[in-house]
Amino acid sequence: MRLALMMICLLVAGCATKYQDMGFAGGVAAQQMTSNTFRIVSRGNGYTGQTQVADYTMLKAAETTKQNGATHFLIVSASDASSQGQIVTGGTAQTSFVGNTAYTNYTPAQVHSFVRPGQDTYIRILSVKPGEAPPQGAISADEIIQFVGSRVQRG
Which of 2, 12, 55, 89 sits 20 to 30 Å CA-CA off 61? Predict the structure, then answer.
């Protein structure tokens, strides 16, 4: 029983949402709102951690910044877009006979709760010239790509 449970845990660990375009199992997307403002939408599944979703958001913001010819971005606002759900597994009853005696084993229904982490973040991209100091709170797209990009597992 323990071996089976450990095997299931190992299989499930590989099921977390990877850094990919938005799809059925989650992902990340950038949506342009104005000429220099974007909404970054990140969604995970029940096996994805909130930290992973935050990394996906930051990496997509940095990539979007670079793709639009800018060097830095400011986080204008961010909100938690996580959702919760439940899976109910049915109960089972199994009866076996030994001689004239019937033995029934009953396993009741079980409720499994899960959280699908999500984040909606608005960013404003900007270009900082070499030697110029970035505005307060500006985040370097190159640094995010370097440090966050190295730990993100791509789909």
Answer: 12
